[in-house]
Amino acid sequence: MTDKLGPFELNEIYLGDCRELLAQLPDKSVDFVFTDPPYGHNNNSNGDMISRVGHIFKNRSKVNDERPIANDGPEANDLVRFTFAEYSRLLKPGSCCCCCGGGGGPDPQFARWSLWLDEQIPFKMMVVWDKGPMGMGHHYRRSYETVLVAQKPGAACKWCADSKDVENVIRPGDYGIRKIIPTADQHPTEKPVELAKFFIDLHTQPGDIILDCFAGRGTTLQAAEEMGRRYIGFEISEKYVEIAKKRLDAVKRQGKLFVP
User: Fold this and answer.
1) I need a labelling partner for 126 at 20 to 30 A (CA). Which of 27, 97, 146, 202 fits?
2) Cα separation values, 38 from 74, 122, 190, Å
3) Where are the beta strands (DSSP E) in 43-132?
4) Into which CATH architecture does domain 4-256 fall?
5) Is the pTM of this model over 0.70?
6) DSSP string covering 199-238
């Protein structure tokens, strides 16, 4: 079993633009993609509600004064379309891509991405993550996000769960998944580790290779490490790469404590 993927060592996170790094990975080399790209909504900048969530909740420990997310403007659309094409090249037949997306409006980002994903990898399902309780917004308050699932053709879907009766709605507390209200040391749109683990458990087996090219603080990579999967992550922010490396090192050290 190889410890490298192209020029990269596995079980690591790398600093750089995913458009340059993905091109260095070989065709049909990845077993699963779980990723959370920038949605293109300029979250956490320009005084939007996310950047002021701490003030809203009147808890200074949760104030996230503007921490803009890289490529979170209109350029996010071209970036995501590029990565969808790369996932089609990189995934093995039958393997799946699970891509986090927004929920609701006014920008129908999740609908647009669903169509773009289907152009590259046949669209399989939209899973609704009901984060609960009521979120922020105006008139219709945001309470859910989506996970867009696509399957690479050429083989049966890689389904590794014991049950085939898995709903396409994740309700509050299901599988230990609970939403994160980010503190100042977290990524502004950080997802819970348990969310990544849920999809990793459904679509992979120990030893499979998982890719996340918008790795942030390493949530997907931590989930993969704890579940005995191999992985590779790319992230454009040096700050988050350093945090992710420390996070992964801690998980690896903890794992060694339980090796007989």
Assistant:
1) 27
2) 10, 22, 11
3) 91-101, 123-130
4) 3-Layer(aba) Sandwich (3.40)
5) yes
6) HHHHH--TT-EEEESS-TTTHHHHHHHHTT-EEEEEES-H
Q: What is the pLDDT of residue 60?
A: 44
- Which two tokens mark 171? 């309700």
- What are 183's two structure tokens? 């503190």
Judge whether residue 245 has pLDDT over 90: yes
Please give the structure tokens belonging to residue 205.
């087996």
Mean pLDDT of the 187-200 span: 91
pLDDT, tens digit (0-9, with 9 covering 90-100), for 21-67 = 999 999 999 999 999 999 876 765 544 445 444 444 444 444 445 56
* Exposure on the CB side of residue 78, measured as CA atoms within 13 A: 5
* 186 DSSP 8-state letter: S
- CB distance 220 to 203 below 8 Å: no
Cβ neighbourhood burial of 13 (10 Å; 0-12, 13-18, 19+)? buried
Relative to beta strand 30-35, strand 140-141 is unpaired
The answer to whether the CB of 237 falls within 8 A of the CB of 215 is no
Would you say the C-alpha torsion 178, 251, 161, 204 has a positive or negative sign? positive
Side-chain-facing half-sphere of 106: CA atoms under 13 Å? 2
* CA 90 from centroid of its chain's CA atoms: 17
pLDDT value at residue 1: 67
